[in-house]
Please model this.
Amino acid sequence: MIPPEITTPEVLIDVDILDRNIARMAAATQARGLRLRPHAKTHKVLEIAERQLAAGAVGLTVATIGEAEVFAKAGVRDIFIAYPLWVTAPQAARLRALAEANSITVGVDSAESASFMGRNLGAGAGRIAALVELDSGHHRSGVRPEDAAAVARAAADAGLDVAGVFTFPGHSYAPGMPLAAARQEDEALRRGADELAAAGFTVRTISGGSTPTASLDPADSFDPADSRDRATAATELRPGVYVFGDAQQFELGRCEPADIALTVASTVVSHHRTAAGEPGRFIIDAGSKVLGSDRPAWASGYGRLLDHPDARITALSEHHATVEWPQGLALPDRGELLRVVPNHVCLTMNLVDEVSLLREGALAGRWAVAARGKNS
Model:
């Protein structure tokens, strides 16, 4: 599955699996009557965005103005910067330029940031839509749903076009949490949208979604005794990792090995002697500079070997990964090629300039990671 002409470490994308993942999420979202606005910070690749839009996505989500600029230059016309921006005068000039030919939406989660943004945007504020960010349980950015109207009023007073609310249920990234997080997400979106409507705002967009929760049927996450209409409050979803899958999604049970489109080809470069009765250990050449170093407390390691599910990556250095091998099995030979699944694929894509494409195990071209490093 790793072409011999590959020089490791190298990011590989199986295009057939990628296309299947894109089609599956698009169909599932459409079946629920929801809009799909994928988060492009995961892949940062123009060709993947094109595939998502062709499959029915209404636009893209990004994390930064720089990412928005890259995708807008490539022709993406509807972009949501899902971040509580603090917009300085130089950033305001960039937003005004983007809004000249594109539909641009930004996140706000305080009256102060909304007012500051409006002052710097000046007469251009009315061309920028704003969604109020809600905290649905992740406890990162975002306001309580009951405070959403106050932020919306400040945004409207600053000249922004208040379009609705959004949230990110990031606490779904933990064992046993996706269903609970889906319920909390839905409740927060419902309450926040109601607060805006009661304050006189027309709520056009109610935006949610993470890869662990995007494919869940909301009815599965609610108390059957609750007699209210339990159709999801959201009008659109913003999953990102679903295009590739990663070790976190696998360990959470949100994808199967056959769904993982991105791996890092690596070479066994060294064997580490262990005492009798201990698991074997060896070193591969994919370290933190390609895998990223993200490891949640619940994760079983710093990544997984796609073809060897019982192995664990127990330590990372910049260019080394230590693999613990099942006791009693012969270690892979030095020089053997292995496929590593990163814990958090978004980090990997921000660490490389290009990726190699596979079709049926053969090298099928390369894509540039066009929005790599656009962190502001």
The chain has two domains: 14-240, 248-368. Residues 65 and 91 are 8 Å apart (CA to CA). The two ends are 37 Å apart (CA to CA). The chain has a mean pLDDT of 94.
